[in-house]
């Protein structure tokens, strides 16, 4: 099947250029850095020279739910940056280098070309998210207290939708522009803009994808999935699919050579 | 049988016409050379036929093609500077190309083996493409373009970037391939076109300025030049030959006296009579055939 051939090529490429190793490692690092560093903060302060005698610092005791959010916070900033940089050349780079001149003169369906790349990126991103958040969960359980596997898996699934949207935005810009740097810039700019718009119109945009983490925190604290969370997830998925369709149409209309 | 009909094809960028109202048709099993100076629109035509560019006007029609059928199934295309995935091996790229053209894994593999053998890089099939030489890449490029047995193979400047050995190999390969499919290739190296093609399309400034079979064009552009070589100093024969009635003028190029004449048969008679009478040490007498280059210059510079 043509789609599988395209998908398998991407997955193989990620092996050969070691993305399957460094992306999960970066996600693990980002996910555990806050849980670990916050727990060991007193020891860290001690070892870098200590504080004058008599100094009293009250360090808050974090609840597991708060620590999960710290991990997500890192992924939302640096994790998103990593995804953007990793995906910025997936189509744009091929068009820029000219290899797409060989590939797209074959009877390749544009929807296969784009969805296969999208799916391969998602496989990598979801796997990295899963591994990273499980690592974070491991430390949370040791250092901060009990958090059920059930809730961490729900966190991973819902947060995965947000990262899916990030990948979709990147794929969309990949079909519009040939320069990977521009793709990366616009992807990040779009996400920042979305967050600003969500904050300004917060009373209307209740289900904006940017609110996903907020509802996730509620979910971890209360232990129940709110309808707002579900609707936000649905909106996120719909926007992702919409971007994917737009990308296919854009590529169809594009001239693939100069 | 007609394979492809191109009707009034035009392509413009930012209001500038790169290809203007080009019409032609190809017949099955021919090898057609697209010749023209740099910037004549050769690559644009090939890319448009390959579907990489969309025509501004005009139609491209394959015979026997169903409505809405994907034109790309019937063509193989090799760009001037093919770029591959350097991390793949030659074999992997071939199989990938085959799979994209709807061959099964097994078919793709079998066909890849055959073609890599044919183009002569079977020994390097498991080497990374990044380590291939220019000639090997070009041959891999041809092999991947024909993996799905296209009806029309299009090659953009297939030999211009190669060294003489690579060039010879690719030309020989093209001669073999033309038994199996129609080939359209662009070049500005005229001797290559002369060597492998049956038909020519001469392009200048986006327009077809001349076309036809090699034989027809030769006849049409037959020059009336006789080339003479003598032992010793040429210059002393130039004057008396110039004086002959049928000779228009003459020039010396290297060691050859080139004589333009009005009537070949008459001039031959006169020149040979003169040579015999004077007892000149003639070493070579040639009736010049129109070279493609003369034709090209004539058509392009007007």
From TrEMBL, chain A:
The chain crosses the membrane at residues 20-41, 72-93, 114-140, 152-173, 185-209, 229-251. One of its GO terms (molecular function) is ABC-type transporter activity. GO terms for cellular component: plasma membrane. Keywords: Membrane, Transmembrane, Transmembrane helix. This is ABC transporter permease. It comes from Oceanobacillus arenosus.
Automatic annotation (TrEMBL), chain B:
Pfam families: ABC_tran, DrrA1-3_C. The keyword Nucleotide-binding applies. It comes from the Bacteria. One of its GO terms (molecular function) is ATP hydrolysis activity. Residues 4-230 form the ABC transporter domain. InterPro entries: AAA+_ATPase (IPR003593), ABC_transporter-like_ATP-bd (IPR003439), ABC_transporter-like_CS (IPR017871), DrrA1/2-like_C (IPR025302), P-loop_NTPase (IPR027417). PANTHER family: ABC TRANSPORTER RELATED (PTHR43335:SF11), ABC TRANSPORTER, ATP-BINDING PROTEIN (PTHR43335). Belongs to the ABC transporter superfamily. This is ABC transporter ATP-binding protein. It comes from Oceanobacillus arenosus. The lineage of its organism: Bacteria, Bacillati, Bacillota, Bacilli, Bacillales.
């Amino acid at each position: 099947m043509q789609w599988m051939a395209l998908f398998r090529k991407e997955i193989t490429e990620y092996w050969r250029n070691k993305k399957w190793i460094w992306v999960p490692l970066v996600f693990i690092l980002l996910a555990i850095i806050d849980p670990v560093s916050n727990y060991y903060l007193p020891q860290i302060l001690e070892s870098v020279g200590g504080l004058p005698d008599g100094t009293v610092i009250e360090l808050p005791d974090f609840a597991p739910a708060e620590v999960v959010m710290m991990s997500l916070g890192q992924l939302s900033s640096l994790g998103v940056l990593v995804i953007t940089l990793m995906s910025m050349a997936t189509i744009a780079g091929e068009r820029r280098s000219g290899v797409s001149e060989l590939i797209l003169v074959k009877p390749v369906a544009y929807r296969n070309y784009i969805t296969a790349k999208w799916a391969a990126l998602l496989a990598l991103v979801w796997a990295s998210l899963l591994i990273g958040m499980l690592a974070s969960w491991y430390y949370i359980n040791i250092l901060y207290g009990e958090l059920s596997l059930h809730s961490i898996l729900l966190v991973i699934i819902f947060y995965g939708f947000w990262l899916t949207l990030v990948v979709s935005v990147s794929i969309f810009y990949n079909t519009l522009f040939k320069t990977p740097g521009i793709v990366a810039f616009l992807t990040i700019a779009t996400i920042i803009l979305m967050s600003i718009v969500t904050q300004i119109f917060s009373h209307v945009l209740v289900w904006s994808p940017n609110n996903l983490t907020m509802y996730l925190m509620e979910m971890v604290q209360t232990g129940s999935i709110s309808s707002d969370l579900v609707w936000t997830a649905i909106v996120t998925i719909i926007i992702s699919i919409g971007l994917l369709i737009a990308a296919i149409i854009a590529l169809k209309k594009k001239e693939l050579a100069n | 049988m007609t394979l492809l009909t191109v009707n009034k094809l035009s392509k413009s960028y930012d209001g500038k016409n790169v290809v203007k109202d080009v019409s032609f048709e190809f017949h099955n099993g021919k090898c057609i050379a697209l010749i023209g100076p740099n910037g004549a629109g050769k690559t644009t035509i090939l890319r448009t036929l390959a579907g990489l560019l969309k025509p501004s006007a005009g139609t491209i029609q394959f015979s026997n093609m169903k409505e809405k059928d994907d034109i790309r199934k019937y063509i193989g295309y090799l760009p001037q500077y093919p770029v591959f995935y350097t991390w793949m091996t030659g074999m992997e790229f071939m199989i990938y190309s085959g799979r994209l053209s709807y061959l099964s894994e097994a078919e793709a593999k079998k066909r890849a083996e055959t073609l890599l053998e044919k183009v002569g890089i079977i020994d390097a099939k498991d080497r990374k493409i990044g380590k291939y030489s220019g000639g090997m890449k070009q041959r891999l490029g041809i092999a991947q373009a024909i993996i799905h047995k296209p009806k029309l193979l299009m090659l953009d400047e297939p030999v211009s970037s190669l060294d003489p050995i690579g060039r010879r190999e690719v030309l020989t390969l093209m001669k073999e391939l033309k038994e199996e499919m129609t080939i359209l290739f662009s070049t500005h190296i005229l001797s290559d076109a002369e060597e492998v093609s049956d038909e020519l399309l001469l392009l200048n400034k986006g327009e077809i300025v001349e076309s036809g079979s090699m034989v027809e064009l030769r006849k049409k552009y037959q020059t009336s030049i006789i080339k003479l070589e003598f032992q010793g100093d040429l210059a002393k024969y130039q004057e008396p030959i110039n004086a002959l009635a049928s000779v228009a003028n003459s020039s010396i190029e290297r060691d050859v006296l080139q004589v333009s004449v009005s009537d070949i048969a008459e001039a031959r008679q006169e020149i040979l009579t003169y040579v015999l009478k004077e007892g000149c040490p003639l070493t070579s007498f040639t009736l010049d055939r129109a070279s493609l280059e003369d034709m090209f210059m004539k058509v392009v510079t007007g």
